[in-house]
What does this fold into?
Amino acid sequence: MCSAVSVAHGVGVLATSQVRDEIVTRLLGENVRLPVYHALIVGISDYVHWSKVPWARADAEKLAQVLSSKYGFSDTRLLLDQEATRERILEELERLVGEMRENDAVLIYFAGQSFFFSSAQEAYWIPHDGVAFAPRAQADQKWLRLYEVRGYLSRLKARHVLLLNDSSCSEWMIHDWHGGRNAGEESRYRQALGQRSRWCIASGYRDALPSESRFGNRLLQVLDGIPQPVFSASDLAGWIKDGGVEFQGARMVYGPVRAANGNEGSDFVFVEMGGKSLAPKDALPSMASKKEEVLAAHEARPVRQEVMITPPTLPDQPAAAASGGDIKKAPAKNEPKVNVPALESEAQRLFARNDLDGAALLYGQILKAEPRHLTALSNLGVVLFQKGNLMDAEVMFRTVLETEPRDLFSLSMLGRVLSKQERAKEAVDVLGRALAIEPSNTSCYNYLGIAYGQSGEYALAERALLKALQLNKDFGEAHYNLALLYATQKPPFLELARKHYRIARRLHVPEDPELESLLSLVK
It folds into this structure.
């Protein structure tokens, strides 16, 4: 007896539960450990200050039902209309950060109004009670920045995260355009279950939302039709796109979430389970804690002296030599209940010993006691940068810059973070702001050269690195990066590359066997 209907565009019919189980076993293996699936679903049709979105609530309710009944989502939270305030959405995101475990998979869905500030390149979800067309400073307090949402996706311990965004400005979340994959590549589903992923599928509406969402209709049609018992988010996106969504004044987009930590290039996998729940017996209880205002607006404090750590190099190359130095302490204003200066001193000692986890813990304690402590925010950003938590480090430095927009140290570090994430254009913009403040900053010229090199603008990269050497002819890292730049151009300038590499080594930059091998190709 058939248990599902077919879906158009070549997706077949699934026959019986026995056949389904056999296919699942063939695709995933007999002893595969499936994730525990969770969902946070937000649908806002009725707004206080914005026009209604007729389909948003109904689509959200239908999605919650199909995920629970067919795909074994054991914990599905719905926020509809007046429930979907900024505070409630943030509270649920914080709950997910606290409760999720490594073997969890989280789906987040938003349907409703959104807004994009083109001048600041900032996109926002509009909660139920969001004010109408606020200035950006007020929007940050009353709306929900997608930058904040990305931060939560990075902090989630869950192995798999999928964001379904049925609103305008939705492409802002996505790092790159992706084409669909062919369904039925059996090994990739097994592989994907073991790797971390942060994916987004977005409707891509450009301006006003339509009276009916073809994206939502197609999404529900595909999921309810069960095209095959095991499939991925990229399969799902391809089937939605095949349904003609792009003919509705929208350009549907999908791909990895921009700069979200935890993305290993994998995919989110759906498994049709006929309503069977995979919730473990020892699942954590629901947390009702509010989001702590660690990243709120900050009082002005003396700006930190620079924390000197290993400079980045051009992409995929070893880091150059460290410049030495310590984390510096800013004077405290009022003594809090905990001894903040003592915590700062101990965090500095741990950082010097390369105990990054210990230093991060202490800076977290400082921020819990004094959330407006700019020194702790920026130094925690350095620790996170060293640990490779680039998205969280970015949040720290941007938070400092909201209060101290001319803080040269935070601008410089933010440029490095963006460069490490291969967001070269953003890095160039930030480093340009830093150099406008201090035109003689050699480190910023070095990082600017790296960013230009990443974006393929080799002439500008060369100019920036040469400017760094004009300011300091003994800047070993700039010599190394210039050697790397000359050696990897087509055609390469090997004599110049050898010259600058020899100088870099004489200035105690560590050797680079790969670059040395490349430089020896021509005698």
